[in-house]
Amino acid sequence: MARETKIPLADILPVTAATNEAGHLTLGGCDAVELAREFGTPLYVFDEETLRGRCREFQTEFRSRYPDTVVAYAAKVYLGRALAAILVQEEMALDVVSGGELAIAASVSFPPERIYFHGNNKSALDLREALDYGVGRIVIDNFHEMQLLNGLALGAGKRQPVLIRLSPDVDPHTHVHTTTGILDSKFGIPLATGQGEAAVRQVLELPGLELVGLHVHLGSPIFDLEPFREAVDVVLAFAVKMVETHGLRLEEFSPGGGFAVQYVEGKAPPSVAEYAETITTAVTEGCQEHGLAMPRLIVEPGRAIVARAAMALYTVGSSKDVPGVRRFVSVDGGMADNIRPPLYDSRYEALVANKALETRRETVTIAGRYCESGDILLRDAELAPLEAGDILAMATAGAYALPMASNYNASLRPAVVLVKDGEAKLIRRRETYEDLMRADLWPLE
Ligand SMILES: *Cc1c(COP(=O)(O)O)cnc(C)c1O
Prior knowledge:
- This protein is of the alpha/beta class and 445 residues long.
- It has twelve helices and 21 strands.
- Helix 2 packs parallel to helix 9, helix 5 (124-133) packs across helix 6 and helix 8 packs parallel to helix 9 (272-290).
- The longest helix has 21 residues, at 226-246.
- 49% of the residues are buried.
- Pyridoxal-5'-phosphate is lined by residues 74, 76-77, 95, 118, 217, 220-221, 256-259, 300-304.
């Protein structure tokens, strides 16, 4: 595992990324070109050291400033059973948003008390499954849900601890599709309209619910620190009113997630330490100012835990030169395994795994293989000259790619490997044609 050569994009790639004598990219001590050969492409490679390191960095940076902090990983960003088991070992908590995510967590015996159940339209079935598993907290998003959950909890002979998700009307200046804390959002109960207060009053009156705190999530990725400070101030000012007028006990408070990661060169987000300093200072000072006891703090990083941990490997195939316009180079994946570029105009960095130290560059546009003109992974990327058979490695592929993957064009969802110390473990096999047809019934009875 030679790490002497300074690899390009070192701040963006998994922490173990290096190059070997062949000039190939290595991840977790494994040659990426060999991984592509052994497991096929598209292949998602998760680096265990990066994953565990990010869990610990969040826990350390927050707890050194605010000891009673829970770090809850947002499962929607990517959850497989191997990852869930690592999170258990790292003593992380978990945010889930569906019965399916809860089932994955339950399959590795994720401690129920460390599970938070979110979502703007949890079904009765979701809520029953959450009650049965005994999840620690259900985060109430709306008035319908509080009545539904109250009935189900009473029916089950339980009093379910809950948080209320508020919409604080703080704009985090991110993509319109990923902004959640403004007034005109489907998520959370608005404060500005007076509905937040009505929600607190009602939940306190429902015998099946035990209100233990308040939650906000602004959206993501949030590159500025100010929206977090603002959201903490707004919620604490609200909380103190609720304590005084309705007897709210603010035992827990969550400012959500949305911590940004660096996807492209030149656009570095704040460090985990900076996010932690901003949030913990705002909570500590806000509580002092309002005379509130310090609540347990729950932070919910998602992409900031896994994005950097994974790279997606693709094999280069056809190319098309449009003289004077651009050169398209196609790979064997695209929007079916990563829809973020067409959906959010997301940008990535990439390198050629079998030419990791090549210094020549050409400008190309990397196209996916699916039947959509919008299926472009990288526009105007500066890469080593590409030929058919090269292995393209896309960085920061750990977040929101696999869980949004589809079978578009009846494609097979990719394999996933976990690498560590020169060993690669297959943690999700590539789908097969049988998988495609498993739920498709024929012949009909
Ligand atoms: C999606 C989500 C997160 C995580 O967002 P990231 O940007 O991936 O950190 C945290 N909390 C809630 C409630 C979410 O919906």
